[in-house]
Amino acid sequence: MTRLGIDVGGTKVALRLAGAHRPPRDAAFRWPAPADPAADWAALAGEVARLRARADPPIAAVGVALPAAVDSAGRVTAWPGRPAWVGLDVGARLRALFPGAAVRWADDGDVAALAEAERAGARSAVYLGVGTGVGGGAVLDGRPVPGCEAGHLVVDRSAREERCDCGRFGCVQAAASGPAILRRATRLRGSPVPFTGLRDGLADGARWAAAALEPAWDALAAAVTGLGELLHPEIAVIGGGVAAGLPGFTEAVAERVAGYARPGYAAPPVRPAALGALSSLHGALLLAERGGGPA
Ligand SMILES: [Zn+2]
């Protein structure tokens, strides 16, 4: 069966065609700027058409990992990363894009958690993906816990500097998203810091680079600890492009989680995502293979 996984991100989209193809075929594109649903959809349809032309046999199942909140009818209710998508009937559009195929979609954090749990051979896991935002998910007894929005856990009641995309202060995402980290690094260094600059600064032991990352590590550790207290997962996984691109990121979170140990509570072991920045894409393919989201 030919399957297509699509990982929809805040700035780019990754696609993987798998099945009869050896090896899987990958494609990716950046969303056009500024955000406009018509232009976005045309870009997606163009990329799908190019992959479809190479799919033999035809695509039978599609899984889509979405960062947006989508209601049961398939309509986007919130996506701070691309607010113009609110109200878009993404379910109907996806079904129209893939006539004859089984199309399913789910939260990107939920499917990433599933993919990482499976890869680790764990029946339960919590996942935090650090990228343009902070996505997250949990798996219990081998199944995703729907609607587990770990990025919007409030972990800092005194936060007033960075507002989360959702409008609140104090969310994990407000402290730990890639853009939030880079804004902090820019303030601390006093000049614009791109991601590569942050990575180099960290490798060189620059104080401003570590100071820009510490609030992110603290927020992620607080989230892992809270989720650990509630769910007692076998593992906690830190993924996403920001974590994958900065050596020592996960270890710094693990160190802080260990600092929250208390008698009677064993914090979950914290591991880097085995699938690197591709957890959601693998999860989207699992969704295509097995279903589990809305059909
Ligand atoms: Zn939030």
From TrEMBL:
Alphabetized Pfam families for the sequence: ROK
Recorded family membership: Belongs to the ROK (NagC/XylR) family.
PANTHER family named among the record's database cross-references: N-ACETYLMANNOSAMINE KINASE, ROK (REPRESSOR, ORF, KINASE) FAMILY
Protein name per the record: ROK family protein
Organism whose genome encodes this protein: Actinomadura physcomitrii
Species lineage: Bacteria, Bacillati, Actinomycetota, Actinomycetes, Streptosporangiales
